[in-house]
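pasting for the record
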Amino acid sequence: MIKNLIDKLLGKPGKPDAKAGAKAKSGAHALGKRVEIGAAEHGIDPELLDDRAVKVVRTLSDAGFEAYIVGGAVRDLLLGRRPKDFDVATNATPEQVKGLFRRAFIIGRRFRIVHVVYGRGREHEVIEVSTFRALLANEAAEQVSGNEKTSKDELAGKSHVVDASGRVLRDNVWGPQIEDAARRDFTINAMYYEPQRELVVDYHGGFADVKKRVLRMIGDPETRYREDPVRILRAVRFAAKLGFELEPKTRAPVKAMIPLLQNVPISRMFDEMIKLLQTGHSLASLDELRKQGLGRGVFSILDAVLDEKGALPDEARGQFVRRALEDTDRRVAEGRSVAPSFMLACMLWHEVQGRWQRLRDGGEPAVPALQQAIDLVFDARIGDISGRGKLAADMREIWMMQPRFERRSGNGPYSLVEQPRYRAGFDFLLLRAEVGDLDMALVDWWEDFALGSDEERRALVEQARETERLQRKSGGGRVRQVAKGALSGEVRPAASGAEASAEEGGDADEGAEDEREGSPARKRRRRRKPRGGGGGSAPAGSGAVDAG
């Protein structure tokens, strides 16, 4: 007993905790039974493995530790898919793992893990290495009344802590593999693969569940959701991504557990929403959210888009968001990069438009009104999250470009096409035109201008100036691109004044492979084909990848 206590204080793997064993026997967390599945049965293709992940496993094994590829990567390998991420689990402590690799970093508070980094820059790869964790019952954990932010002092130096609702705030007590498997969420994510022996280790029937395409929680579902309410969203994501069905007992407590999501930090909820919408199965995720009763009241951004039934409306604004999500799914399927800023800008555009129009109706000048509308929507729908600064700048730049597209005289067009995120702004404009929010002739003009020679550009500007002059002469006043099917249900006149000077800049879009980079050889850009025709271009961007 004293030895076990010392081992836990030193962070060493030890025998199962007595209270944890009692809890496991009660059925809330079943320890399971080790089953080894050979290559002839599991059929994993070694060509789908990541060489660096295999190298991490081999390095740990050579040092005398147990090490396996674990979790979602094993699940995807069994499905014949090449995993996007490879995680490794071992009985080595984080400090021991760090000491074996030249570039390794211990991260996290709630779960301490090690990131082993290979390569540099945009081509770098991170292999996440976690230590087998002990199966500890919540009754054995220390409890705090607050959360991660309000109870920082109480959490300091503690290894196993829960809040008043049973949500785990710290889980850093090491244990054997059988307990590590039991504390994972779903059976399909609780398998281990040893690449050197081509051996799958399964404790909870995950191999059979993969074959049956069933998503089943390990242990008592209600208890597991209380430990980490985000498991509700993970269930939705995996069901949508894999086309699996939630096992009845796993699905039964979901609706009753939804209020627990209010205790999850806003930044973590935001990350989970991005995973749902930006990993290649966004429309399926929206359908699964609605199916599980999560369509409304969980994500404020989705509340701004979905109707009272949790579905995308059939009107223009719903079509606009649907096309943006379809493009995102298509890009992911093609292995191309995507950015949350573009997707979120599409999702919140109609609300920005509505606030913008109301401010202008109240006498506010166009550009300041748009800036205020953006700030109000961002505060209401996104709030204070990590990385807000760059996200806000990128979204703001896309939105602020829209009135500038309607001004085609003077030097404005020349400066606009040189903006780092011009391509994202143009794709946004194109998407608006496709749903009837403005005349496609405006898109054609900018496409010709961006790819034209100096002489062609001068001719286009002169043509636009002459058109504007004739409309003024005929009594039409300033040329206005009037929306044919305004997303907000209102007509929006073109902005005037110093839009460029009022605009807040952002970093260049990381999806630069889709942008022109000053090449003298200009080729006409192919516009998206109508829906049903396939192909075409899609919004530029880069960003989040699936974590599991």
